[in-house]
Each structure stands twice: as structure tokens, then as C-alpha cells.
Write a structure and sequence with these properties.
This protein has 313 residues and is mainly α. 80% of the residues lie in helices and 0% in strands. The protein is built from 12 helices and no strands. The protein has helices spanning 5-37, 44-65, 69-77, 90-113, 117-138, 145-165, 170-188, 193-217, 227-253, 256-262, 265-277, 284-310. α3 (69-77) packs across α8 (193-217), α4 (90-113) packs across α8 and α5 packs across α7.
């Protein structure tokens, strides 16, 4: 059946707009190391605390503008139980996801500011493969042959890294595993993305406010010491939240297969920054490790396309 010209052009326009949103989201995520580098020697924990606080302020402000504050309040009051029938209340699940997100965000800031941008980018390359593995283990999703080989290739790549350098790329692995578990838990709780993220940041905000207050009282805090640094702290909320909003807009307009290819843009940009801007080493060992991961991602993507084309799960 041929769509009317207006309908076809409308669908194409939405897809183009979705691609722009995806490009904005993943490009921003890929370039975020530049932003975190501006904090210099400021501790990752203090930066993370402000990132949570100002993200909560920004996200709640957006919900107010969108007149969706009742959804947030209903969830916090517990008047919207999880329709999936989960044993845990959605807010309890979101407390778990908030903890994982805090760990992931804080570790990424630490990785960037300890000159390990390359290793951090490796973590987000591995993440989709860890997600597939968690789906197999916890959700009993079928792991197709191509996906099995892709996961095996990733294991070989990391194993080679450990064998050659005698050290575990723990930042990469912790980033990949924590974000994969975050995605797994968010998958099983029926909460809108924006409302869910607002609740996550609000749940952590009291702790971060206490920590920032303690830093201020003991004279160890950096907020208010200089206008540039203070603006960077406040801006952390915007730089965190805007890519997520762009991502949500892209997800509404693009097929998952299309959106999936954009996800490799972020770690690719971070990798380029680490090597060519910040001068981090990229040795022959890195070449083999990343080569295995890239081959695994290519195989994973091709397998996913074939499965969607054949109607497979």
C-alpha cells in the first residue's frame, strides 16, 4: 500500500527530526568529558552531588512547564502502583536505579578527571553487550548465535587487555555493568522516562544536599568560591538533563534499530577526545581490545537487524 504523499513526507520529516535529536543527544554525551575536565582537581563526589541537585531542579522545572507535576507527586505518594505486578513498589525500584545511576555518573566523572577517558569510552562500547547478557540471564531472553559470538568476542578483548597489561579495566567494566543493570531495572518498572529520572534525582538529592552543606561548613566546598566554578556546578544539571530530553524525543520518532546505531557515537567521540585531545595512550593492546569490541558490536548490530527483519524476538 502506498502512503499519500503528505503522510509519507510527514513520516520522513519526523524521522529526520528524530535523527537530529539523536545526533544532539549522543554528541553531547560523547563530548561531556570536555565539561568535566573544567572542574580540574575538584573531587568527583562534589561534582556528582551538584550534578544530582541541579538535575533535580531542572527536571522538576520541566515537569512544571509541561504541567506533569501531578504525575510526579502521584508517584512519590504511592498512588500509582506498578501495573506490571512487581513485588516492589516503583519508588523502591527507582531508589535502586538512582543508586546505580549515581555510581555510574560519579565513576564516569572520576574516570575523566583521572585521565582515563579511553577506558571510560570502552565501558560504553561494552554496555550493549552486557545488556544483552543480562536480558538472557534475568529476563530469559533468547541469546541468538550472533549475539553469543559477540559477547564471546567482548570477553576475549577484555581478557587480552588483562593478560597483556596485568590490570583489569575496572572503570570500563563497572560503567558497563552498572548502566546495564540500571537499564534492566528501568525496563521492569512502568514509569515514564522523564518522571522516573526526576524521581531518581530527587531521591538522592537530600543526601547530596547534606554532603554539599557539610563541605561548605568545613570549608572544603567549592560552590560560591568563584563565578566560573559555580556556574559549572549549576550547568551540570542542564548538561545532564538536556541530552536525556533529546534522547526521549529521538526515541519517539525513530525505530530502535536506527537509534541503536547512534549509541556508538558517544563512546567514539570520547575515545577521540581521550587520544587526540588529552593525549592518553592508545597502544597495540588497546587496538586489539577495541578491535574485538568493535567486531562484537558490528556482529551484534547485524544480528539485531536480521532478527527484526525476520520478525524474531
Amino acid at each position: 500500500m502506498t502512503l499519500p504523499k503528505s503522510a509519507a513526507s510527514g513520516g520522513s520529516s519526523e524521522a529526520n527530526l528524530g535523527s537530529i535529536y539523536a545526533l544532539l543527544a549522543y554528541s553531547t554525551w560523547g563530548l561531556l568529558p570536555i565539561y568535566w575536565k573544567f572542574f580540574g582537581a575538584t573531587s568527583a563526589l562534589e561534582v556528582l552531588s551538584h550534578r544530582m541537585i541541579w538535575s533535580a531542579v531542572f527536571l522538576v522545572g520541566i515537569l512544571v512547564v509541561q504541567r506533569r507535576l501531578p504525575d510526579l507527586l502521584a508517584l512519590l505518594r504511592g498512588s500509582k502502583p506498578n501495573p506490571e505486578g512487581a513485588s516492589l513498589h516503583p519508588v523502591l525500584v527507582l531508589l535502586l536505579t538512582a543508586s546505580l545511576l549515581s555510581f555510574n555518573w560519579g565513576l564516569y566523572i572520576y574516570g575523566v578527571n583521572s585521565d582515563r577517558v579511553v577506558e571510560a569510552s570502552l565501558g560504553y562500547y561494552i554496555n550493549p553487550l552486557v545488556t544483552v547478557l543480562l536480558g538472557f540471564v534475568f529476563l530469559k531472553e533468547r541469546l541468538h548465535r550472533g549475539q553469543q559470538v559477540a559477547v564471546a568476542l567482548a570477553v576475549v578483548g577484555v581478557g587480552y587487555f588483562v593478560w597483556q597489561l596485568g590490570t583489569v579495566p575496572w572503570i570500563a567494566l563497572a560503567l558497563a555493568v552498572s548502566f546495564a543493570f540500571y537499564g534492566l531495572l528501568r525496563k521492569v518498572v512502568a514509569v515514564a522516562p522523564l518522571v522516573g529520572l526526576a524521581v531518581e534525582t530527587l531521591l538522592i538529592t537530600p543526601i547530596t544536599l547534606l554532603f554539599v552543606g557539610w563541605l561548605g561548613v568545613t570549608g572544603q566546598g567549592h560552590f560560591g568560591q568563584s563565578w566560573p566554578l559555580t556556574l559549572l556546578f549549576v550547568g551540570a544539571g542542564v548538561t545532564t538533563s538536556m541530552p536525556l530530553l533529546w534522547f526521549n524525543n529521538a526515541a519517539k520518532r525513530l525505530k530502535l534499530a536506527t537509534l541503536g546505531f547512534f549509541q556508538y557515537l558517544a563512546p567514539s567521540l570520547s575515545l577521540l577526545l581521550g587520544v587526540f585531545v588529552y593525549g592518553e595512550p592508545f597502544t597495540s593492546v588497546h587496538v586489539v581490545t577495541f578491535g574485538c569490541i568493535w567486531a562484537a558490536l558490528l556482529l551484534y548490530s547485524v544480528t539485531a537487524f536480521r532478527l527484526r527483519g525476520s520478525g524474531g524476538g
